[in-house]
Design goal:
Strand content: 5-15%
Number of strands: 6
Radius of gyration: 17 Å
Number of domains: 2
Order of helices and strands: EHEEEEEHHHHHH
CATH topology of the largest domain: Glutathione S-transferase Yfyf (Class Pi), Chain A, domain 2
Distance between the termini: 25 Å
Largest sheet: 4 strands, mixed
Strand order of the largest sheet: 2-1-5-6
Length: 209
């Protein structure tokens, strides 16, 4: 059985969405990313992953996989028939990697990470100055498109959809990009995405993390 270590509404939400889209039910482990503890047994999360960051996907053979791009790609490849990632040899598979990398570096780490983790207001202000250009790249790409890659929902959309949900909390109004407003609506209308978000929002309210 797969196991996912997560923090509610953190980037690991993308992994939950991908798992639910694939019809895979792993064992979930809540992590307190602030004190690096696993509440269910008070273990040090760094014994699971020295990086101390979610997501961590524990495979059926006990190996541990980290980093969003790798975890999401792995989940997609468990059920290749669902098209959550283009198949090997398809040129769109490289487009998937392109968007996973873009979301991870240019939106997640460049903006969301410093905005939510750093206390230095100058650092936050600098991130806000840059994020508009990065988000505009995705907005332009999505004009006339439903999804980031090809004609169907992929794990890149799970990651980007999560990022868009959090942009507002970082002080960026998605409403300035009509294509992203429509995209985010489509994203949240997907039954599995909506269910995953609901689960994690509830956990944020009730879990002591």
């Amino acid at each position: 059985m797969l196991q996912l270590y997560f923090y509610p509404m953190a980037c690991s939400l993308a992994s939950r969405i991908a798992l639910m889209e694939a019809g895979i039910e792993p064992r979930y482990h809540l992590v307190n990313i602030w004190n690096k503890k696993i509440p269910e047994d008070d273990r040090d999360f760094r014994t699971v992953s020295p990086k101390g960051a979610v997501p961590v996907l524990v495979l059926s053979n006990g190996e541990r996989l980290t980093e969003n791009a790798a975890v999401l790609q792995y989940i997609a490849d468990i059920k290749p028939e669902l098209g959550l990632a283009p198949p090997p040899g398809d040129s769109d598979r490289y487009r998937l990697q392109e968007w996973l990398s873009f979301v991870g570096t240019e939106i997640h780490k460049a903006f969301l990470f410093p905005t939510f983790w750093y206390k230095d207001e100058a650092v936050k202000a600098s991130a806000r100055e840059r994020i508009g250009n990065n988000v505009s790249v995705a907005a332009e790409h999505l004009e006339g498109r439903k999804y980031l890659v090809g004609e169907r929902f992929t794990v890149a959309d799970a990651y980007f959809g999560w990022a868009l949900l959090l942009l507002g909390h970082g002080g960026v109004d998605v409403a300035q990009w009509p294509s992203l407003v429509a995209y985010l609506e489509r994203f949240q209308e997907r039954p599995q995405a909506r269910a995953a978000i609901g689960i994690e929002m509830q956990l944020r309210k009730t879990a002591a993390v």
